[in-house]
Amino acid sequence: MPSIMLNVEYTLSTDKSKLDFGLIHQYLSRESYWAKGISPETLKRSIENSMCFGVYKDEEQVGFARIISDKSTFAYLADVFVVNEHRGKGLSKILMQHIVDHPDLQGLRRWMLGTADAHGLYARYGFKPLAKPERMMEKHDPDVYKR
Questions:
Q1: Looking at residue 31, what DSSP letter applies?
Q2: pTM for the complete prediction?
Protein backbone atom coordinates (compact mmCIF):
# COMPACT_ATOMS: atom_id res chain seq x y z
CA MET A 1 0.00 0.00 0.00
CA PRO A 2 2.57 2.61 -1.02
CA SER A 3 0.06 5.27 -2.27
CA ILE A 4 -3.71 5.40 -2.63
CA MET A 5 -6.15 8.10 -3.69
CA LEU A 6 -8.30 9.29 -0.81
CA ASN A 7 -10.51 11.44 -3.01
CA VAL A 8 -10.00 13.65 -6.05
CA GLU A 9 -7.77 16.06 -4.12
CA TYR A 10 -5.82 13.94 -1.60
CA THR A 11 -3.65 10.84 -1.52
CA LEU A 12 -2.28 8.76 1.33
CA SER A 13 1.13 7.11 1.22
CA THR A 14 3.27 4.92 3.46
CA ASP A 15 6.36 5.78 1.39
CA LYS A 16 8.75 7.42 3.86
CA SER A 17 10.73 9.03 1.02
CA LYS A 18 7.71 11.28 0.36
CA LEU A 19 7.54 12.62 3.93
CA ASP A 20 8.18 16.34 4.39
CA PHE A 21 10.43 16.14 7.44
CA GLY A 22 10.49 19.93 7.83
CA LEU A 23 6.70 20.13 8.00
CA ILE A 24 6.45 17.21 10.43
CA HIS A 25 9.15 18.62 12.69
CA GLN A 26 7.69 22.12 12.61
CA TYR A 27 4.23 20.86 13.53
CA LEU A 28 5.29 18.47 16.26
CA SER A 29 7.97 20.66 17.85
CA ARG A 30 6.05 23.96 17.74
CA GLU A 31 2.32 23.31 17.40
CA SER A 32 1.57 19.98 19.07
CA TYR A 33 0.95 19.75 22.80
CA TRP A 34 2.48 16.25 23.03
CA ALA A 35 5.89 16.68 21.34
CA LYS A 36 6.68 20.36 21.80
CA GLY A 37 10.43 20.85 21.58
CA ILE A 38 11.22 17.45 20.03
CA SER A 39 14.67 17.57 18.42
CA PRO A 40 15.16 16.78 14.74
CA GLU A 41 17.38 13.84 15.71
CA THR A 42 14.75 12.29 17.99
CA LEU A 43 12.02 12.77 15.40
CA LYS A 44 14.21 11.25 12.68
CA ARG A 45 14.77 8.11 14.80
CA SER A 46 11.06 7.87 15.61
CA ILE A 47 10.15 8.00 11.91
CA GLU A 48 12.85 5.47 10.96
CA ASN A 49 11.48 3.00 13.52
CA SER A 50 7.77 3.41 12.81
CA MET A 51 5.18 2.78 10.12
CA CYS A 52 4.37 6.23 8.76
CA PHE A 53 1.31 7.50 6.94
CA GLY A 54 1.42 10.77 5.02
CA VAL A 55 -1.57 12.63 3.58
CA TYR A 56 -0.86 14.76 0.50
CA LYS A 57 -2.64 17.33 -1.62
CA ASP A 58 -0.86 17.01 -4.93
CA GLU A 59 2.74 16.63 -3.70
CA GLU A 60 2.34 18.80 -0.57
CA GLN A 61 2.12 16.94 2.72
CA VAL A 62 -0.88 18.02 4.81
CA GLY A 63 -1.22 15.21 7.36
CA PHE A 64 0.76 12.59 9.22
CA ALA A 65 0.48 9.67 11.63
CA ARG A 66 2.81 6.96 12.76
CA ILE A 67 2.39 3.52 14.26
CA ILE A 68 4.85 1.83 16.61
CA SER A 69 4.13 -1.88 16.31
CA ASP A 70 5.46 -5.42 16.27
CA LYS A 71 2.81 -6.01 13.54
CA SER A 72 1.69 -9.09 15.40
CA THR A 73 0.20 -8.28 18.81
CA PHE A 74 0.45 -4.55 19.59
CA ALA A 75 0.32 -1.09 18.01
CA TYR A 76 0.65 2.41 19.44
CA LEU A 77 -0.78 5.27 17.39
CA ALA A 78 1.24 8.48 17.65
CA ASP A 79 1.77 11.94 16.20
CA VAL A 80 -1.52 12.19 14.31
CA PHE A 81 -2.18 15.60 12.75
CA VAL A 82 -3.69 17.42 9.79
CA VAL A 83 -2.40 20.95 9.21
CA ASN A 84 -4.89 23.71 10.02
CA GLU A 85 -5.57 24.76 6.42
CA HIS A 86 -6.81 21.26 5.54
CA ARG A 87 -8.89 20.46 8.61
CA GLY A 88 -12.65 20.07 8.39
CA LYS A 89 -12.49 17.96 5.21
CA GLY A 90 -12.69 14.55 6.87
CA LEU A 91 -9.00 13.79 6.33
CA SER A 92 -8.37 12.59 9.89
CA LYS A 93 -11.25 10.14 9.56
CA ILE A 94 -10.00 8.84 6.22
CA LEU A 95 -6.46 8.60 7.61
CA MET A 96 -7.65 6.66 10.66
CA GLN A 97 -9.72 4.26 8.54
CA HIS A 98 -6.69 3.45 6.38
CA ILE A 99 -4.53 2.92 9.44
CA VAL A 100 -6.92 0.49 11.14
CA ASP A 101 -7.49 -1.30 7.81
CA HIS A 102 -3.80 -1.61 6.95
CA PRO A 103 -2.96 -5.26 6.17
CA ASP A 104 0.10 -5.27 8.46
CA LEU A 105 -2.03 -4.20 11.43
CA GLN A 106 -4.73 -6.86 11.41
CA GLY A 107 -5.32 -9.33 14.24
CA LEU A 108 -3.57 -7.25 16.88
CA ARG A 109 -4.52 -7.93 20.49
CA ARG A 110 -4.08 -4.32 21.63
CA TRP A 111 -3.95 -0.85 20.15
CA MET A 112 -3.15 2.18 22.32
CA LEU A 113 -2.88 5.92 21.96
CA GLY A 114 -2.87 9.05 24.06
CA THR A 115 -5.03 12.11 23.37
CA ALA A 116 -6.16 15.20 25.20
CA ASP A 117 -8.79 16.36 22.75
CA ALA A 118 -9.72 13.87 20.02
CA HIS A 119 -11.57 11.16 21.94
CA GLY A 120 -14.57 11.37 19.59
CA LEU A 121 -12.43 10.76 16.51
CA TYR A 122 -10.70 7.71 17.96
CA ALA A 123 -13.91 6.26 19.43
CA ARG A 124 -15.21 5.87 15.85
CA TYR A 125 -12.43 3.32 15.30
CA GLY A 126 -12.99 1.28 18.44
CA PHE A 127 -10.74 3.09 20.91
CA LYS A 128 -12.13 3.37 24.46
CA PRO A 129 -10.85 4.44 27.85
CA LEU A 130 -8.78 1.72 29.51
CA ALA A 131 -11.00 -1.14 30.65
CA LYS A 132 -8.69 -1.98 33.54
CA PRO A 133 -6.53 1.08 34.20
CA GLU A 134 -5.32 -0.51 37.42
CA ARG A 135 -3.39 -3.00 35.27
CA MET A 136 -1.63 -0.35 33.20
CA MET A 137 1.46 1.55 34.22
CA GLU A 138 3.60 4.15 32.56
CA LYS A 139 6.98 5.76 32.86
CA HIS A 140 6.44 9.30 31.65
CA ASP A 141 8.92 12.17 31.36
CA PRO A 142 6.99 15.17 30.00
CA ASP A 143 10.08 17.43 30.07
CA VAL A 144 12.41 15.14 28.13
CA TYR A 145 12.47 17.45 25.07
CA LYS A 146 13.30 20.50 27.20
CA ARG A 147 16.64 19.10 28.36
A1: I
A2: 0.91
